[in-house]
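Good morning,

Attaching, inline, the C-alpha cells for the sequence recovery test we're adding to the shared suite. The designed sequence is right after.
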C-alpha cells in the first residue's frame, strides 16, 4: 500500500516568490513560510506592503527575506536570484509579479506593452536561465501565476492577456527542458480573486457580478482557494504535472 507524504511540508526548502508582498503572491509566500520554507519575497515599489509582509511572516514564526528588485530589468533578476541562492540551492520559484494597465489591445502603447511583457513573461525566462543551474534536482519547481485572459478575451485586458499567453507557452518549453532533472514548470490560472488588484479594473463591479452569476460555485475566488493549489503544485506530490496551466476557477470557464 502506498503511504503518501504530507504535500505541504516545506521544511528545508528555499523558495523565491516574485511579487510576494501583495495579493496572491503575499499569500503564497506566507503559506510557504508557515509550512517551513525559507522564503525570499520580492517586490518592486511598495515598501510599506513589503514591511507588512515581513512583519506578518515573522510574527507567524516564518523565515523571510524581502528583496526589492524590478523583475522587468534583467540585471535585477540576476541579483534577485543571486540573493535567493546565497545559502545554497533554490527549490521553488513562484512567479507572481505582474503589471499592466487595463486597456483594449489597440489602445496599448508600445512602452506599456514592453513593460507588461517583460514583467510577466520575460522575467520567467530570465528566472529560469539564472536560477536553473541552482534549482534542486528532483524537487525543483517553477510555478507562474497566469490568467484566463491568456486564452479568452477579457475586457480591457489586451496586454496582460497577451503576456499571460506568452508565459503559458514559455512554461511548456521550459517544462520540457527541465523535466529530465525532475524539475517541473507549470502555471496556475485562477479566476478573479477577491480583494486583489483586479478590483482596479474600471468595470470590476459588473465583471465581478457576472462572474458570480456564471460561476457554478457562486462566488469569486479568495486567496485561500489559490494558496493550497499553489503549494500542491510546488510539492513533490505534483511531480507528474509537467508544463500545464492548471485552470482553477470554480467552474467559471465551463459556463462561458
Ligand atoms: N488578482 C486576480 O484576480 C488574478 C487573477 C488571475 C491571475 N492573477 C495573477 O496573479 C498574480 C498576482 O496577482 P495580484 O492581483 O495578487 O497582484 P498584485 O496585488 O497586483 O501584486 C503584484 C505584486 O507584484 C509586484 N510587482 C509588480 N511589478 C513588479 C516588478 N516589475 N518587479 C517585481 N515585482 C513586481 C508588486 O510589487 P509592488 O507592491 O512593489 O508593486 C506586488 O508585490 C499576477 O501574476 C496576476 O496576473 C491575478
Amino acid at each position: 500500500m502506498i503511504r503518501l507524504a504530507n504535500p505541504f511540508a516545506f521544511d528545508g526548502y528555499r523558495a523565491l516568490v516574485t511579487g510576494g508582498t501583495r495579493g496572491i503572491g503575499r499569500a503564497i509566500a506566507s503559506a510557504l513560510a508557515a509550512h517551513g520554507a525559507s522564503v525570499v519575497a520580492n517586490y518592486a515599489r511598495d515598501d510599506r506592503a513589503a514591511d507588512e509582509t515581513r512583519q506578518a511572516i515573522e510574527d507567524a514564526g516564518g523565515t523571510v527575506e524581502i528583496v526589492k528588485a524590478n523583475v522587468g530589468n534583467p540585471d535585477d533578476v540576476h541579483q534577485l536570484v543571486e540573493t535567493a541562492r546565497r545559502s545554497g540551492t533554490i527549490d521553488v520559484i513562484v512567479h507572481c509579479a505582474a503589471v499592466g494597465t487595463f486597456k483594449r489591445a489597440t489602445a496599448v502603447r508600445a512602452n506599456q506593452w514592453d513593460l507588461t511583457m517583460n514583467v510577466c513573461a520575460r522575467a520567467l525566462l530570465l528566472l529560469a536561465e539564472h536560477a536553473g543551474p541552482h534549482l534542486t534536482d528532483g524537487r525543483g519547481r517553477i510555478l507562474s501565476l497566469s490568467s484566463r485572459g491568456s486564452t479568452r478575451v477579457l475586457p480591457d485586458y489586451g496586454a496582460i492577456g497577451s503576456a499571460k499567453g506568452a508565459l503559458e507557452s514559455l512554461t511548456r518549453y521550459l517544462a520540457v527542458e527541465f523535466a529530465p532533472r525532475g524539475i517541473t514548470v507549470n502555471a496556475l490560472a485562477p479566476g478573479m480573486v477577491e480583494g486583489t488588484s483586479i478590483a482596479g479594473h474600471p468595470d470590476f463591479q459588473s465583471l465581478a457580478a457576472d462572474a458570480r452569476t456564471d460561476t457554478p460555485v457562486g462566488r469569486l475566488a479568495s486567496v485561500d482557494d489559490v494558496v493550497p493549489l499553489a503549494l500542491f503544485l510546488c510539492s513533490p506530490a505534483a511531480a507528474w504535472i509537467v508544463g500545464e496551466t492548471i485552470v482553477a476557477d470554480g467552474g467559471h470557464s465551463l459556463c462561458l
